[in-house]
Structure formats: structure tokens, C-alpha cells
Protein 1
Amino acid sequence: CGAESGFDDKAGLFYVSHKGFRMYIARQFDTEEKVRRYYRSILIEQDESSPHRYLDGAFSVLDGDVVVDVGTAEGNFALEVIDKVSKMYLIEAECDWIEALRHTFADVHDKVVIIQGYASDCTDGNKVALDDVIKEKVQFLKMDIEGWEAKALAGARRLIESSAGLKCAVCAYHNSKDEERICDVARE
């Protein structure tokens, strides 16, 4: 993949150099070859010609935006825009990724809030409603949570209504009815 990679003994995790940061990778990727393969898949997924790409020249995060990244995983999207944002909320459910994210964003911790939980329509146990954890206006919402997007949007009604001009990059391809469900929630 051409990017610098290595193992950080202090963190106990592999990393890849991405956008000038060490992007730490979850423990399940326990060899440098697994890390490099995973990183290559991220690059392919976010290639300019990929339908999975969240941003393009006409649709992007602007300087000073407050951004919410739901389904952060390794944090590649957040690293793409971290230099522009005034604040970044990272919502991730998987413990292994939370550990990696803490290391990745340690140098910019003053503008990053990491929240562990499954984004949903309510806050209960390991579920979290965005309305319950984000109280400020947001300019950009990225959501890729494997088919749970409609349920998570239902838990973000106040956030969406109070954030005039909100840009949303919400994945609608995980299940055959995702696009319809997401549109229904948006119309409510």
C-alpha cells in the first residue's frame, strides 16, 4: 500500500501512517500483513470512483464544522477532515476500535469526543441516541453502521432539526429497504 506501517510497543497496536497521523488498527489485525491488507481495502473503498466514498469536491466538510462520525471503525474518515473541524464526535460500538481510536486521536484530543455505543433510537445499556450525547449544532453527519442507520437517525431527530444546513452522508445499501427506511425517517 506504500504507507508507512509499524508496531507501537507502548500502545501494543499496529498502525499505518494516514494523512500525517498514525492510524492505529484494532488488535484483531495482529500482523503487519493483515494491517496492510486492511488498509488497502480502506483506500479502495474511499477511492474517488468508489460509490462508497463519503466526500467529493462539491460535498465536503468545511472549516470550523462540527462533525459526527457514526460507525467510525479505524477513523479514516475522521482523519480526512480533522484539520478542518472545530469539533469531532466519534461514535463507535466495538471496544477494539475504541482503544485504537484513543491512540489515533491522542494528539488532537481537545477537539475529539469518543463515545462508545451502538447508535440507536434510544439510550439504554450499550445503545446511545445521538440526541442524548450531542447537544450542539452539527454541520456534517456521516453514518455507516451496517444497516442500523434508520434507527440511529430516529434517535437524532432534535440534532437534525436544530442543525440548519446539516449535510448528511448516510449509507443506504446494507439492506434492500435501507434507502426507503432512511427516507421515511427523514420525512417524519
Protein 2
Amino acid sequence: FSAIAQGVQAAARQEHRMVLLATTDGTPASEKEAVMAFAGRRAESIILAGSRSTRREDAGANAELAVELDRYCRNGGRVGTLGQPVAGLTETGRVHTVEIPNEALARELALALARDHEGPFVIVGGPEGLATSDDRIGGFQQGLAAAGRPASEVVHTGFNRNGGFDAGDGIAGRITAAGAPRPCIFACNDVMAIGVAAALREHGLEVPRDAALAGFDDIEWLRDFRPALSTVGLPLEDLGRLVTLGAISGEAGPSTVEGAVVLRHSTSTLV
């Protein structure tokens, strides 16, 4: 999110605008509160850079968020969203969405990893109903199926570093069991992958010797992470710029960006 925010700031500065920033922990209820606050301050545009939730318990908050955004648009505001559009919006003519091909890219990653890894796969994903995580899990499973491999086990946890650590802690116990095959772990974002690696180290395990490990996003922190992490690279700052310029210009409808699979030492078979 910090890289995306840098892109938002750069685009806003280019267009002689100032940026107000709020963190919402990715919940539609908190996003609705932020939208109301920014609308009350007469913000020209509002950018939402969080995953949509399809969880049943968030249905009411999703509807309330859509109502607030529609009201804001009818009063002249413009909206930009990253990843997925907000369900239930009616004022779509004032909304610009930059779509991220999470499912397709995760499928490509699975196909690339399945070419060299012979053991089992484990997916570490966020809570069920978190759209970004669900898309990446689904795409990875599709890639494994296309490679003729069985479906992966999925461990659901927090969509952050601590969630990755908790999942890695559980996976480590199975790796150390006598005769256990070397797994390939796909964490649905790089921060989770960092947490998984930390948990494995706590158990005296090393990547890639005892487990292959891959993430998603190619965040800047990976420059200092060892071993170098296999991942899917996304142009994070460009995402922030694109969604901001689209919202400021009033460009409606979706646009898309491209990403690429990046294989590094964390999934190497040469350990």
C-alpha cells in the first residue's frame, strides 16, 4: 500500500492536487467512514485501494459504502478503485477502476512452479471472502490443474505478515516430520511470505532447502530479503498513478495493468 500511495501522491502533485490519506484495515465499514469524512471535506476525488469483501457479514457494510459513494458522485465527486469495483454502485459514470489480473497471474505462477517442483503445494491465503486473496488462490489452483497436479491445501489466515507467520508455524511442524516431502508454499502476498519464512527459521528450517516459497506483488522490501523471493511483479506505483489520473480526469470504466512471474532463488531446486 505504501508503494501505491507513492504513486497516488506523484499523480496528485503532477495535477496540482493535495492528498489526504486514511487507513481502513480493508473493511467496508471503515471505508464508508473514510468516504463520509472525505466527502465532508469536499474532496474532489476519492481513491479506494483495498480488496473488496464478499463475506456475508460484510454485505450490509458493502451496501452502505455503495450508498455513500453514489451520494458523493451525485454531488460532483469522482471515484477511483483498485483491483475490483465496488458492488452496488449506480453512479458508474463517475467511477474509474484499475483492474489487476490476480487470477490469471497466479495461474501463470503455478504453472511456472509446477515445472520444477515435484513435491506438494501449500497455499497460504487471507480470510475467505477477501476478493484479492480468493482470486489468487483460485488462479493458482487452476494452474496446478492445468499442469496435471492435484489441488493444493489452502491455509486461511490474516492477510499480513503475522498471518503468514502463524501459517508458517503450523506448516513447519509437518515439514520436520520424518519422511515429509519438501513442499512449495505460495503465500498470496509478499508480506505473508516474509512471515512464513520467519516462522520456518524459528523451527531451524531454511528456504529453499527445506521448503520452496513464493509470494505475490514484488514489494520494494524484497530487495533486502534473502533468499531472493519468487513472486509475481506488479507495477505498484503505476497502479497508484493510473487510478488517480483516471479519477481526476473523470475517465469512467475499467482499465487494466500487466504483471509478470519472477522466479528467484526461494523456489530453486539447487540448494
Protein 3
Amino acid sequence: VADAPTPAQLRSVAYEAVQAASKTGTEQLVLDLRNGQGGTLAPSQFGNLIAQGLELGTYRYDRYIAAAKRRPSTVQRVTVVSDQRAASEGVPRGQQVAASVIKARDLVNGPANEVTPSYLARFAAELVDGLKGSADVRLQVLEREDCEKLGMGCYLAVSQGSAEPPKFIHLQYTPKGENKGRVCLVGKGVTFDSGGLSLKPSDAMMGMKMDMGGAAAVLCALEGAARLGVPWEVHAIVAATENMVSGQAYKLGDVLTASNGKTVEIDNTDAEGRLTLADALIYAGKLQPNFLLDFATLTGACIVALGPHIAGVMSKDDEFVAQWLAAGERAGEDMWRLPLPEPLKEQLKSPIADMRNTGERWGGAITAGLFLSEFTEGQRWVHVDIAGPAMVRKPFGVNDEGGSGYAVATILEFLR
């Protein structure tokens, strides 16, 4: 380990050690990290990051593989040798962060015929049941009729092409002691995205079970926050649906009305995530949060701009962005700020409605952020486009191929 390792490097070295040990059939691993604790990291944070890497190194998604063919990690015990005894104080936190990341990975890796909007609602209910007696966590699930009463025209339009009923999930954690304020986490919850009538080609559709990566992140981060007892009231909000093709599907040229009264002309039904988020962000804003963040596998354009491992971060609130980016650096998750220039809103103009749902090809990640900004007026808001890192195509960092659970660790670090 380097004299001043970064958080990402610390998680990775522990992860790689467990992976290497398991490949050789090792059951007991000794990890010698003396002289590897330089830099400004507190000992407890050092222990936290090492624990995360060790736990994530044992992760396998093998639910649908025959028992005889499964290859679980062989590592049963790890001893870490460290210069500072206080590093062990961070281990319980690291184990909990990793447990929340693993739950999010399982959701993203789950096939779309299993992980439906109804499944996400049941998953949220199971989180509440698992926390009974230890934390104040409550769940409200709005059905289609409830969303109609609230005027969620954009969200409901996306859902109308699917045989699966939409589920608008609102999970709330309230701390028992100190309460610093309210944080709303909105996650894109499109459990499968065919593109709708703007149908994706087969190759592009294959991985679209991951289009609920934002939902997985916020639901599992809230459970982690409750178990860690963070001093913030936290709300996880997910407008869960599929985006499918049928005789009921919404169409190009349709005009939809969001729950704040703004009208949207549809020029691409495959830009559905921002429509579901629009009504979810309006709903979250009515809770008057101190901080509002959304997490979404929103645009391929963000992957073009930043590659497959870095999330795009957008906001006009410099102080908030700085706090969020600092949390990401401490958590070991890569992200980069992109601008939100007002002149690009010209691309979203419509001749028959308040706006269109997409702009031109160039700057597509940014115009998606600008679209969402129209539904966050008056809020301290940050948009995080996780289209790249939510699903890992080749092993990278602390991830094997598949769902990464991206953003869970940073959310929990931010709430710290």
C-alpha cells in the first residue's frame, strides 16, 4: 500500500486481497497494512474502508446458478495487521456500508422478471420490518390512483405501457436523538427500459434491468443510515415503473402535465427516466428538505463524456456540490461535476408545450440535468447521473462484473 493511499485504493487493496486468496482456496487471510496509513485519513476511516473492501471481495451474485456450480469465496477469516489500534473502531461502520452496497447490488443484478415495481415496494416493506424496534422507519406506497390524484402525469404516462402496476415508494427514517435536518434522496426506478415506442435495439436493451440502479442506491442507503443512526431525517423516494411497448404506451408528440402544472411534449419515449423523476422531485420538494439529491442511470451521453466508472454531478449550488464531491472522495467513489449552462435550455423549447423532454445529441447529459432543474425550483439540489458506474462491464475497483451498488457509500458518507 502506498504511503498516502486514497480511499479508493484502500478499498481496492483489501478487495483484491480477498479475491486473490479465494482463487487459491485460502480460508484464513492475513493482511499486513503497516506503514500504509499515511496521509490525512483518521484511523477509524482507514478501518472503515478496509472493512468495506474485505466484505465486498466476497460478494457473488449466484442466486440462479446451480448449487453444485457455485464458487463462493473460500475466505472465512481475515486478520489485519495495522500500526494504529484505533483503526478497528471503523470496522463496524465499514461492514454496515458494505452490507448496504451488497443489498443494492443484489437489486441491480436481479432479473427484470423478478425485480418489478411491486418487488421494489415489497423490498422496502421488508427493510421496515427488519428495522422494527431499532429505528423509526416508515413506508408509504402510492398506487396508480393515488398518483392520479396528485397529478403525476409524467410518471404515469411512462407506466401506462406496462402490465406491471406502478408503485410510488416513499421510505422515511427519523433519528431518535439529534436531528440536523431533512435529506431527500430520489432514485430512478425504471425496473426495465425497452425504450417504449422509441424502441432500443436488442444489444442496448440487454442490460436495462439496471435502470433502477438509482432506486437501489437510495433504498439501501436509507436502511444503512437507519442502522448507523445518522443524525438526519432521511427520505428515499422512488417512482417505480417499467417502460414498455403496448397499445397503451405513451407516444411521440404526446403532451404530458407534471404535478406542478408544467407541460412536456414528448419527442423521445426513451427519455423516460427524467419524466418519472420530474414528479418524484416535485413530491420531494413539498417535504421542504434541507438537501435534495437524485440518482439516476439517466443518459448514455454521460458515459460518453466521463467513461464507464465516473458519475456526472450537476447543480447550481456550489457549496452543496463541494460537500457532495468531498463525500465521494472520502468514500472512494469517482465523480465529476458537469455544468448546467442556461443557454442550453434553448434545446428544450417546444412550440406547443412548456418544454420538450429531450434536447439535441450534443450535451445530452447536461440537457437532461437542465430538464430536471425545472422541477427543483427553490431547492438545494444535486443531480447525480450514475449511468456509467451503476453496472460494471469488466471488473474494476471493488466491483466484479454486474451491479456495483454505486452511490450507497457516498450517500452514507455525506450523511455522516
